Amino acid sequence: MVQKLNQDPHATQQAREKVLEVAIGRAVRGHRKQQNMTVSNLSDLTGLSIGMLSKIENGNTSPSLSTMQSLANALSVPLTSFFRQYEERREAVHTKAGDGVETEREGTRAGHQYKLLGHIGSNSSGVIVEPYLIELTAESDTFETFQHDGIETIYMLEGAVDYRHGPNIFELRPGDTLFFDADSPHGPERLVKLPAKYLAVISYPQNQ
Fold first, then answer.
1. Diameter of the chain by CA atoms?
2. Are 16-87 and 92-205 in the same CATH fold?
3. CA 191, CA 196: separation in Å to the nearest integer?
4. What are the CA-CA distances from residue 194 to residues 89, 137, 144, 191, 198 (Å)?
5. Structural domain boundaries of the chain?
6. Cis peptide before 167 (omega within 30 of 0)
7. Predicted pLDDT of residue 100
8. Taking the domain 92-205, which CATH number applies?
9. What is the average per-residue pLDDT within 111-115?
10. Fewer Cβ neighbours under 10 Å: the N or C end of the chain?
11. Strands (E), 7-136
12. What is the CATH number of domain 16-87?
């Protein structure tokens, strides 16, 4: 039985304007939840319908400036707080082989094999984690860059790949790790040595 995942981890990101709407929606939802406020409560305070608030939180509409001011007043936050996630710098951490800190804690393309190693849907943590084993065994069409919600970690097992994250290119070799914000454009830029194999672990919030 094949389970359909909630998110295509390698889907092309929306246009820049849509990304702004999503960032505003996430900020509104985050502030609301921090104050243990329901959508109905926020509706009463702002005069906006529950349906409209749902569209705003899901990034499906562009709220007007007056609407955002009403939301800011109701949530007791500055209007600028809705734009912080959109404007913040996206970071990537590249750990070379042997440089890590030891710790203890509790649509495939031709010639490219993606193996989902596990998937947990609804869970109490509010986070979905999807580990993939990705094998690159032959040259394929030019890669499109990927963008999606969440955080991604790549651990290089064999072969060699030059991997793009935003404007930066990282030379991934066996034992290297790349940890990055996945809503910045990313993906293999050049297949240096084949076959190549790496583990990719994607984590993102459950749909609310």
1. 59
2. no
3. 8
4. 33, 6, 19, 7, 12
5. 16-87, 92-205
6. no
7. 57
8. 2.60.120.10
9. 65
10. N
11. 92-95, 112-116, 127-136
12. 1.10.260.40
Nearest to 186 by CA among 159, 157, 150: 150
User: Nearest 10 degrees: CA dihedral of 74, 43, 63, 81?
Assistant: 30
- Digit-coded pLDDT (tens) for 60-69: 888 998 999 9
- Which of 4-8, 15-19, 114-118, 153-157 has the least mean pLDDT? 4-8
Distance CA 8, CA 204 (A): 11
* C-beta of residue 111 within 8 angstroms of C-beta of residue 138: yes
Give the whole-angstrom CA distance, residue 120 versus residue 108. Answer: 21
Read off φ and ψ for residue 130, nearest 5 degrees: -125, 110
CB 107 within 8 A of CB 10: yes
- The phi-psi region of residue 95 (left if phi > 0; otherwise alpha if psi is between -120 and 50; otherwise beta) is beta
Q: What angle do CA 71, 72, 73 make, to 5 degrees?
A: 90
> Residue 190 carries which side chain, given as an amino acid letter?
R
Give buried/exposed letters for 34-51 (b at 16+ CB in 10 A, else e).
Answer: eeeeebeebbeebebeee
Q: Please give the mean pLDDT across all residues of the chain.
A: 78
Q: Could you give the CA distance from residue 151 to residue 111 in angstroms, rounded to a whole number?
A: 26
Q: How far apart, in Å, are the Cα atoms of 117 and each of 63, 114, 131, 200, 201?
A: 40, 9, 5, 10, 9
